[in-house]
Write a structure and sequence with these properties.
Layout: H1 4-23, E1 28-30, E2 34-38, E3 43-45, E4 48-50, H2 53-60, E5 63-71, E6 81-84, E7 94-96, E8 107-109, E9 118-127, E10 130-132, E11 138-143, E12 150-153, E13 157-158, E14 163-170, E15 179-183, E16 189-196, E17 202-210, E18 220-229, E19 232-241, E20 244-256, E21 266-276, E22 281-288, E23 291-297, E24 300-304, E25 311-318, E26 321-324, E27 328-329, H3 341-371, H4 376-386, H5 393-406
Bound molecules: 2-acetamido-2-deoxy-beta-D-glucopyranose (NAG) (10 copies).
One 2-acetamido-2-deoxy-beta-D-glucopyranose binds near residues 68, 84, 86, 87 and 125.
Amino acid sequence: MACPENMYFLIGLFMSGVLVCFGQRDLITTMPDRLDVLTGSCVQIPCSFDIPDQHKDTFNRAILLSGVWIKENFDGRPDNVIFNSSKTVNRYQGKITGNMSQKNCTTVFFNVTTNYTNIYFFRIESQPYHATDTGKYVEIVVSDLPSSPILTVSGEVKEGTPVSLNCSAVAPCPEHPPELTWTLPTQFTTENQLQENSDQTKSVLSTVTFNPSYLHHEMNITCTAVYPVGTSNKTAEHNVMLNVSFSPKDTSASISPSDPVLVGSCVNLTCSSTANPPVTTFTWFQISGDKPTQVASGHSYSLIVTGDGELYFCEARNSHGCGKSKEVQLAIKGQEEPVNPKVFEIVGKTLGLIFLFSLIVFFEWRRRTSRLPSGFDMTDRSQGLVGMNSPVGTVCSNQATVGRGNQ
Ligand SMILES: *[C@@H]1O[C@H](CO)[C@@H](O)[C@H](O)[C@H]1NC(C)=O
Ligand SMILES: *[C@@H]1O[C@H](CO)[C@@H](O)[C@H](O)[C@H]1NC(C)=O
Ligand SMILES: *[C@@H]1O[C@H](CO)[C@@H](O)[C@H](O)[C@H]1NC(C)=O
Ligand SMILES: *[C@@H]1O[C@H](CO)[C@@H](O)[C@H](O)[C@H]1NC(C)=O
Ligand SMILES: *[C@@H]1O[C@H](CO)[C@@H](O)[C@H](O)[C@H]1NC(C)=O
Ligand SMILES: *[C@@H]1O[C@H](CO)[C@@H](O)[C@H](O)[C@H]1NC(C)=O
Ligand SMILES: *[C@@H]1O[C@H](CO)[C@@H](O)[C@H](O)[C@H]1NC(C)=O
Ligand SMILES: *[C@@H]1O[C@H](CO)[C@@H](O)[C@H](O)[C@H]1NC(C)=O
Ligand SMILES: *[C@@H]1O[C@H](CO)[C@@H](O)[C@H](O)[C@H]1NC(C)=O
Ligand SMILES: *[C@@H]1O[C@H](CO)[C@@H](O)[C@H](O)[C@H]1NC(C)=O
C-alpha cells in the first residue's frame, strides 16, 4: 500500500471542500453560466433564486427586499459592489426587472462597456434575512463585435424538395434584439421569432424556406444579424455553401475523333454529365429501326465503325435519377455526308412557313390598298415619284435630300 495516510488526508480535504462549497450556500440562485454582450448595448441577466429550508422562516419574515450584484469575488468588498437596488446611484446603471417577491432577480444593465467583463455574484439584503450565493456566478463577456449567428441545415438539400434552414442569433439585450436577414440565390420566405433558450437567455430564430435547384449547388447562403446599438448597427454573418443533390444534368455524348472516319476504324464515344452525387452508371444506346438498343455501359464506349447508319446516345444515372444525351451520328469518310432526315424536315417546314407568311403579307397588302378609292392608288404612286406632299413621298423626298446633300 502506498501512503494510505496521504490518501485519507486527500479524501478528507476533498470532503471538507465539498462542505465549504455547499454547506454554506444560504441562497441558491439560477442564472446562465455565461453571457456574451455587445459594447454600448444592454444585458439582461435571467435570474431566479430559492431559499434553503433552514432559512425559509427568516426569509418569509423579510421586508424591504433588495438585490445586490457583486463583481469578481463574493466577499463583497465595497469596491466590488456594482449594483445595490436600495440605492439610487450605482456603479452600473441597471434595474432589477424581476419581481423579487416572486423570487425573480432578473436584472438589466444598460450601456455596457468592455470593463464590465467579469464574473458576478448575487446577494439579497432584507430585514432580517441577507445572504450571498457563493456557489453560483454569471460570467459576462463584453466585446465590440457581435458573435456570428448560427446557421443550421438539417438533412439533405435535394433539388425540387423545399428546404428549411435555421439561423439563430443571441439576443443578450432582448429589448433591442438583432434583426436577421438572408441572402439566397433564389426566392425565399422567412419567419422570425424571439425564443427562450434552456438557460432562459433569449435568441432570435429565423427560418428560411426555399426550393433548391441544381443551379444553386455550391452557391453561398448568408444569414446576417444586425444588432442595433445606440444610433448605429453592428453586424455579424454566417455563410454556408449549398450542397444540392440532383439528378444528372447537361448530359452529352461526344465522338473522338470528331472528323469523318473510315469504315472499320475505331472511334470512342464519351458521355459527360454533371450530377451530385456523381454519376454512378453510364449506359450507351444505339438507335436501330427507331428503337434504342442498349449496347454498352461505361463512361466511354469504343467501337468499330461499320458504316451502318450509326446513331447513338448515352444515359447517365445517379441515386437521384437519370439524364439522356442528344443523339450523335458517326461521320463516315467517303460516304455522302450523312444528312439527318430531320434536317430536310426542318428546312422544308421553315420554307413552308416563309412562303405562308409571304402570302399573308401579300394578301394583307392587297386588302389594304384595294380599300383605297379607285384611281387614288395609281395617281398617288405617280405623284409620289415627283410630288412632295403624298404619303409615300417622304421616301422620295428623303432620297432627294440625300441627292441634294451629295451635290
Ligand atoms: C446596499 O444599500 C443599503 C442602503 O444604502 C446599505 O445599507 C447596504 O449596506 C448596501 N449593501 C451593500 C452590499 O453594499
Ligand atoms: C422574471 O422577470 C422577467 C423580467 O420581468 C420576466 O421576463 C421573466 O419571465 C420572469 N421569470 C419568471 C420565471 O417569472
Ligand atoms: C410582485 O409579486 C407580489 C406577490 O406575488 C405581488 O403582490 C406584487 O404586486 C408584484 N409586484 C409587481 C411590481 O408586479
Ligand atoms: C447610455 O449612454 C448614453 C450616452 O452615452 C445616454 O444618452 C443614455 O441615456 C444611456 N442609456 C441609459 C439607459 O442609461
Ligand atoms: C469603464 O470604462 C469606462 C471608459 O471606457 C469608464 O468611464 C468607467 O468608469 C469604467 N467603469 C468601471 C466600473 O470601471
Ligand atoms: C429550426 O428550428 C425549429 C424550432 O426550434 C426546429 O423545430 C427545427 O427542427 C429547426 N430546423 C433546423 C433545420 O434546424
Ligand atoms: C462563398 O463564400 C466563400 C467564403 O465563405 C467565398 O470564398 C466564396 O467565394 C463564395 N462563393 C460564392 C459563389 O460567392
Ligand atoms: C440599422 O439596421 C436597420 C435594419 O436592420 C435599418 O433600418 C437602419 O437604417 C440601420 N441603421 C443604420 C444607422 O445603419
Ligand atoms: C479510345 O480510348 C482508348 C482508351 O480509352 C484509347 O486507347 C484510344 O486511343 C482511343 N481511340 C481514339 C480513336 O480516340
Ligand atoms: C455533398 O452531398 C453529397 C451527396 O449528399 C455528398 O456525397 C458530398 O460529400 C457532399 N459534399 C460536400 C462538400 O459536403
